[in-house]
Design a protein that fits this description.
With 174 residues, the protein is mainly beta. The chain is 0% helix and 48% strand.
C-alpha cells in the first residue's frame, strides 16, 4: 500500500498507524502490516476525507473530516457514527481536564462537546462583541497546567475564560 498522498494521522499505544485516506476513509495498519478498514452503523465503508483524529480518555476515537463534520469510532463495535455536522474542515481537537472535547475548524469557529451532558456549544466571531473569539479559524488548542484554554487562531492567540465564556485576544503587538 502506498501512503504517499494520504494523511498519517498518528500512532496508537500498540504501534499501529492510523491513516486518513485522501480519497476518503480511515484505515489502521498494525505492526504486522495488516490493514483494518472501518464501517458506519449501516455497514457501509466510511468514506469521508479524514483530516484529524484524537483519542479521548474514555477510549473513543474522534474523527475530524474535511467537510462533513465530526465522527467517532465506538471502541466496542468498531463502527463509525457522526457526532456533529459542520461544513468546515476540522483542523484541531483537544480534551480538557473537565472531559470536554474542543474542536477547532477552518472558518467554522470553535466547538465544545460536553460529553457528560451530551451538549455542544458553538463559539464564533461576533464583530459586535470584542470578547468573542477573534477568528473562526482555529489552528491549535492547548490547555495549560492551570486549566486555561489557549487557542491559536487565524489572526492571533486567544485565552478563554471558562467562568465568563469570554475570550481575550493577543496579537504580535502584545
Amino acid at each position: 500500500h502506498s501512503f504517499g498522498s494520504d494523511y498519517i494521522l498518528g500512532e496508537d499505544d500498540n504501534g499501529s498507524l492510523w491513516i486518513g485516506m485522501r480519497q476518503g476513509g480511515l484505515i489502521k495498519r498494525d505492526t504486522n502490516g495488516h490493514i483494518n478498514r472501518f464501517y458506519d452503523s449501516k455497514h457501509k465503508e466510511f468514506n469521508q476525507v479524514v483530516i484529524q483524529i484524537y483519542k479521548t480518555n474514555d477510549g473513543i476515537i474522534w474523527i475530524g473530516t474535511e467537510a462533513d463534520g465530526l465522527y467517532y469510532l465506538d471502541p466496542v463495535t468498531q463502527k463509525i457514527s457522526q457526532a456533529y455536522f459542520i461544513a468546515n474542515q476540522i483542523f484541531s481537537m483537544r480534551e480538557d481536564t473537565f472531559n470536554s472535547l474542543w474542536v477547532g475548524t477552518l472558518g467554522g469557529g470553535l466547538l465544545r462537546f460536553n460529553k457528560t451532558r451530551d451538549s455542544v456549544t458553538h463559539f464564533k466571531t461576533d464583530p459586535m462583541d470584542t470578547a468573542s473569539i477573534s477568528s473562526n479559524t482555529i489552528l491549535a488548542i492547548h490547555e495549560d497546567t492551570n486549566g486555561i484554554l489557549w487557542l491559536g487562531t487565524g489572526i492571533g492567540l486567544n485565552k478563554f475564560d471558562r467562568k465568563t465564556g469570554k475570550f481575550t485576544h493577543y496579537t504580535e503587538r502584545d
